[in-house]
Amino acid sequence: MRKLKYHVASTTDGFIAHEDDTWGAFLQERLVKDSEHIADYSASFSTYGTVVMGRRTYEPGLKMGVTDPYPMMETYVFTRTMKESPNPRVKLVSEDAIGVIRRLKEQQGKDIYLAGGANFASMLLEAGLVDEVVLKLNPLLLGSGVPLVTRLRNVSSLELLSTKVYKNGVVLLRYAVLPEGAPGTNPALLPEMPPAT
Ligand SMILES: NC(=O)c1ccc[n+]([C@@H]2O[C@H](COP(=O)([O-])OP(=O)(O)OC[C@H]3O[C@@H](n4cnc5c(N)ncnc54)[C@H](OP(=O)(O)O)[C@@H]3O)[C@@H](O)[C@H]2O)c1
């Protein structure tokens, strides 16, 4: 069974893009110049055989003429509005997204890169299909923007697998998504308060 990993860059306050879908803050010189985290991100591509994303994640690149953003991976874009793929390598999926992802996971091969965005990843989290969240936390506060996840009906409990702190302050956090009802995820009784003296 291949793992589905939501691998995403976020600000410290949990936004993955500005409100207008741009990423200016993530491109600050101090965060990108000679950056080891970018080299690690590029190296991670060799661990993925397939990439899946929502249409709004695919579109910004497309507007810049990039029709095949991950040529080293089998590529699926989920959309009900795009009718024709701009690139023969990029497959559009309009129906049964959950079934398609389930079948992709059942195939043999390298893991699946869930590139985003919030809307598409949240739908897959709710369906219990996301195995890991790989979070590249950037030392930035935006206050508003596109959130990491949205509209989750249930809490997704995460178990920390590893951390890596980069010199520029970016922190890579790798989490496993715990199944619903996993041990320890029920609300604990609060310890009794000491009596007032
Ligand atoms: N920082 C990062 O690492 C990172 C990574 C990824 C994305 N982003 C940012 O996140 C933003 C996009 O995220 P988002 O949440 O707005 O959008 P999104 O999740 O990328 O895409 C949403 C779209 O996906 C399609 N979709 C969703 N569920 C579907 C289903 N069940 N079946 C078929 N199609 C489905 C729909 O497309 P249609 O409307 O065409 O039907 C929907 O409008 C952008 O600003 C992007 O730059 C940042």
Description:
This protein has helices at 29-32, 36-44, 55-63, 97-106, 118-126, and strands at residues 4-11, 15-17, 48-54, 74-78, 90-93, 111-116, 132-138, 146-147, 158-165, 171-177. It is an alpha/beta fold and 197 residues long. It has one domain (4-177): Dihydrofolate Reductase, subunit A, CATH 3.40.430. The strands form two sheets. An eight-stranded mixed β-sheet has the order 5-4-3-6-1-7-10-9. Strands 2-8 form a two-stranded antiparallel sheet. β9 and β10 form a beta hairpin. It starts with a strand and ends in a 20-residue tail after the last strand. Bound molecules: NADP nicotinamide-adenine-dinucleotide phosphate (NAP). Residues 8-9, 16-17, 21, 53-57, 60, 78-82, 94, 97, 115-120, 123, 146 line the site of NADP nicotinamide-adenine-dinucleotide phosphate (NAP).
What small molecules accompany the polymer chains? Answer: NADP nicotinamide-adenine-dinucleotide phosphate
Q: Report the count of strand segments.
A: 10
CATH class: Alpha Beta
User: Judging from the principal axes of the Cα atoms, what is the shape?
Assistant: globular
Report helical residue fraction. Answer: 10-25%
How many domains would you count in the coordinates? 1
Strand order in space, largest sheet: 5-4-3-6-1-7-10-9
The structural class is: alpha/beta
Q: Give the C-alpha Rg.
A: 18 Å
What is the rounded distance between the termini? 58 Å
| Most strands sheet | 8 strands, mixed
Annotated CATH architecture: 3-Layer(aba) Sandwich
CATH superfamily: Dihydrofolate Reductase, subunit A
Element string (H = helix, E = strand)? EEHHEHEEHEHEEEE
Number of helices: 5
